[in-house]
Design goal:
Blueprint (H helix, E strand, L loop, with lengths): L1 H17 L1 H21 L20 H8 L4 H11 L3 H19 L3 H9 L1 H7 L5 H28 L7 H29 L3 H17 L12 H7 L3 H14 L8 H4 L4 H29 L2
Length: 297
Amino acid sequence: MLAEAWYIAVREIKHFYRRRIQIVTSLATPIIWLALFGYALSGGLPGFSLSNIGIQGIPTQLTFIILALGLDPVIKYVLLNLTSISYISFLSSGIVAMTVMFTAMFAGVSIVWDKRFGYLNKLLISPIPRTSIMLGKMISATIRAMIQGIIIMVLAVLIGARIYTGPIGVMIAIPYMILFTLGFSGMSTAVGIKLADHEEFFGVINLILLPLFFASGALVPVELMPGWLQAVAYVNPLTYAVDAIRNAMLGGVFGPLGGGYALIGIGGSLLVDAAALSMFVVAMVSIGVTIFRKALK
């Protein structure tokens, strides 16, 4: 089954990378979001900044610790700015998660096209497990999402974002990106197999994508949301993906210090994120396989 799934995945990847316009737009869109939102709110988020005392960006726990110390005003000012995080750095993890989610959620459109042009029928009469078709689509989406996610990280750094944890943080983020992609690509292929044409598919997917994106911590900390929206955010799988990627890129309490210090204290949160995303993957893949098999009977 894995060999057949890999063949289907390779075919999908080749088709994607032959469409150069799609490659450019899939990378340009998140960078435009990052640049516009990142620099528009570079002074900090309203209600969650220290701009009134000249501190730029988003304060961290370390910032508030220094604020409470009785230090010389000049030294305190310098340390406060050093320990705050620019909004573009904060936003970059949300944009990486958005890129991964969009890639995963549009994986199912290839199923729609395969049905329309008859390729799916050829697969169905071939001696391969039907589950391998879905698995191949998921593998393809995961590989594309990982490549695009890492490229967005690099481009984010080039336009001013910082990854305080360095290459180790990027390596920590990748497994969470994989989990997240598998869950949403499973959902997407299940939706694709049930719908008749791509117009319906795009309508359903967009209806799912935008609420998930805005009801997560991608743009603002969950703590700043109204109570009812926080409740929605905590059952939103994107929230846990963003949190994991953000912790991996920015670190914990001592994140602004960089290096090994940035990794202190992020283990507990990453475990919670891993558990939540694992349950999401199991649920979505199980539901997706069930729908996929019934639709192909």
